[in-house]
Amino acid sequence: MLSVIIISKNESEHIGRCLESVSWADEIIVLDSGSTDDTVSICKQFTPHVYETDWPGFGPQKQRALDKAIGTWILSIDSDEQISEDLKIEIQQAMKTDNIAGFEIPRLSSYCGRQMKHGGWWPDHVLRLFQRKAGHFTDDIVHERIVVDGLLKKLQNPILHEAFINPEEVLHKVNNYSSLGAKKLFEKGKSTSLKMVILKAFWTFFRTYILKTSFLDGSQGLMLAISNAEGTYYKYLKLLDLQKKHSKN
Known about the structure:
- 42% of the residues lie in helices and 22% in strands.
- It is an alpha/beta fold and 249 residues long.
- The protein has two domains: 162 residues, Spore Coat Polysaccharide Biosynthesis Protein SpsA, Chain A; 83 residues, no CATH class.
- The strands form three sheets. The protein has a seven-stranded mixed β-sheet with strand order 3-2-1-4-9-6-12. The chain has a four-stranded mixed β-sheet with strand order 5-13-7-8. Strands 10-11 form a two-stranded antiparallel sheet.
- β2, α2 and β3 form a beta-alpha-beta unit.
- The termini are far apart.
């Protein structure tokens, strides 16, 4: 039995396609953290297991979803991802194995209309399919991981990821993830300076555009390098702001 687990907030632009792509699963669990658009009503068209909750962070929220699932196998996907027909067949075959605890799946992401093959975005293997008894999520508020006790293998067909539809979505996610990233760094006792903020942003651009060759993805590759640099810049700038506020207390 396969349980699909998804967390959501204001994902009406994506989540219908996501849910349609996993409608063949035995169970779909959705945890929504305060959507103000049509996300919840769209989810209820596909599954009765829709829960409205607070927001404790990515790791804890996904663990909550996992705790509600009853399937022997778990497929964790994001609301802006889709499972192709070929990947569906591969997943169904993979679940017939008992000696493998989990499977990493390549992820093919699109950025403002282009599927990205460079910049560190491909093949981007992510652990998403695992036996429920063998895995759990870390409690990181952002960039959480699935930890699995047992052997792992890789699947061949990719998850399709609508990472960013337009520049407005890029700006929204840069702002959101930089805030969460800064909080995570601060809670770990990390510190920075304005000089380091600027250097890290420049290094992120250089690494993405030159070392990871995002320039081969044309104009979107340049946009990706810039938005990655912006994300790094604002994450560490917000960390610097947290440091200053803490020092005043």
